[in-house]
Each structure stands twice: as C-alpha cells, then as structure tokens.
Design brief:
Rossmann fold; 11 helices; 12 strands; 2 domains
C-alpha cells in the first residue's frame, strides 16, 4: 500500500488513485505537523501553500514522489529532491487554456479601459469621450517564454490579427513558429518592439527581476505588460514608478513577489491586480488534479 499525504486543498475525489493507495487528506496541515509526519509517506500532493524544502525532504525518508497539480514548482526544492532520489511531477498542461484566456482578457480590459469605465459609471460619471480605447488587431504581441501557454496565446493573438514576436532560452524549431506566424527575436528587441508583452517563464536566479527598471525603460510609451507567470520576474517597484510616470501604457499582474501584495504597486495607475487566479477555472482545476492522479498511478505502475 502506497501512503499519500495531500497537504493542500483539492477536490480529493478527482485524484482517483484507487485501491493501491492510502490517502490522508490534511489540507490545513501546518509546517510543524508536516515535519513531524513527513517520514510516514511515499507521496506528497501539494499546491502552492506547502513548501517542500530541504528540511522537509530530509525528514521524508520514505518519500518517492512529490506531485503538484498545476504549473510551477517554486515551492519544491527540485534539486535536493533529485539528490535524494525523489521524483517531482506537476501538470502544467492542464492550465494552458485558462491562463491564455486570462492573459487575453487582461490585454482587452486594459486596451478598452474597462475598469475605469465600470468604476466611473457606478459613481455616476459618464466618461464616454474620455474612454477611447485601442484594438488588438495590427498590434505587436511579444511572448516571453514560448512553451505551451505562450504558444496558445500566440495562436489567439494571430487570430486577432496581431504580429507575434517570441523569446525563449530554449531553441524553438521553425515547424512550431511558422504555423503561429511567430518570429523568434532577442529579448531586448522584443521589449522595444512590442505593444503588448506577456511573461511565461519559471522563477529561477536568471529570471529574478528579469523585468527591471532598465528593461521597462526600453518599452514603448503605450505598451502593456502582463505577468501571469511568477511574481519575482518583475520588479514591482520599478513597474509602479513607470506606471506613475506614464512611461508605459498599463500592466496586469496576477502574481506577485509576496502574496498578497503590498507596496507601491497597489496604488499605481493603469494596472489590473488579481489574486493569482490565472488557472482558477472549474475546468482547469478539475483537469489539473485528474492529470496528477494519472501521473501518480503511472509512477507506481498502478491501475
């Protein structure tokens, strides 16, 4: 019998591990409790709340697999897990459509000034003449990180009549870019040339504050930045300064260096702030858990 500890809140029925697994569902488990019981399980199932760091992994002497429904593994020390022979799995493929739709929604909302329009109308204003927006058609969309989500956004952007520029540290073959109408360019060229920039990169030492004050300064004055990847990729104070100065057109952030966020970004103009909901659709959440269940069963060769 494989013992599984589910540390965070999920729809446990969708995990569907079957009779080969004994599942303990403890979504409110504290760190101290996790450290005390870590050695009892072969599998951890976590979301973003639970940190599976070196200390936890050292206590988990029976652990074989850490499984995280969804995308991102920032809360798992993947390198140390590998040293200890512990596999790590997630299900980023399950969130592609949800995140892509959220990115396009943010681009449209900023372009058409929807938040300002809603707030003004509710307060008795009728600002029709002041709310002249822009269309996405004919604009340049820069996609930073050309994996599953980036490619789906490029596909939607192409359908909307946008020109697609893309950047990735990994070589992307022409048979992938050609159908999407995408051109791979250096990161500096992408930032300088794009009207809309969307970020889809992991949090690593190389991507920490990838979007800092000097890089923001290269953006077009009316350009829009969207970050649905990881909070630490953007220097939030630098972004807030640029928004206040009017040196860029707007931004949408769904992820933050510290969640919930604080500081200057909360009072910056022309920015939409959402509480890490890029993958929060009924369909994506259900699929993320189902896919992880399949990967856990496959790892242990269970039916």
């Amino acid at each position: 019998m494989v013992r599984v500890l589910v540390c965070d809140q999920i729809d446990i029925k969708r995990l569907s591990l079957g009779p080969s697994f004994e599942v303990d569902y403890r979504p409110a488990l504290s760190r101290e409790e996790l450290l005390s019981v870590a050695g009892n399980y072969e599998v951890f199932v976590v979301r973003s709340r639970t940190k599976v760091d070196r200390e936890v992994l050292e206590r988990a002497n029976r652990l074989k697999l850490v499984a995280r429904p969804g995308t991102g593994l920032d809360n798992v020390d993947v390198g140390f897990a590998k040293e200890r022979g512990v596999a790590v799995a997630n299900s980023p493929e399950s969130l592609v459509e949800a995140v892509a739709e959220q990115v396009v929604l943010a681009m449209l909302a900023l372009s058409r000034k929807l938040v300002q329009a809603d707030t003004g109308t509710r307060s008795g204003k009728w600002e029709k003449n002041a709310l002249v927006g822009r269309e996405l058609r004919g604009k340049v969309l820069g996609v930073v990180g050309f994996g599953r989500i980036g490619r789906r956004i490029a596909e939607i952007g192409k359908t909307l009549g946008m020109t697609i520029l893309a950047y990735d540290v990994v070589a992307v073959p022409p048979d992938v870019t050609r159908p999407l109408g995408a051109r791979m360019v250096p990161l500096d060229e992408l930032f300088a040339s794009s009207d809309y920039i969307t970020l889809h990169v992991p949090m690593t030492p190389d991507t920490a504050h990838m979007v800092d004050a000097p890089r923001i300064a290269t953006m077009k004055q009316r350009s829009v930045l969207v970050n649905m990847s990881r909070g630490g990729v953007v220097d939030e104070d630098a972004l807030a300064s640029a928004l206040r100065a009017g040196s860029i057109g707007g931004a949408a952030l769904d992820v933050f260096e510290k969640e919930p966020p604080s500081g200057a970004i909360l009072s910056a103009p022309n920015v939409i702030l959402t509480p890490h909901i890029g993958g929060q659709t009924e369909e994506a959440q259900a699929n993320a858990i189902e896919v992880i269940g399949e990967k856990v069963r496959a790892f242990f060769k269970a039916p």
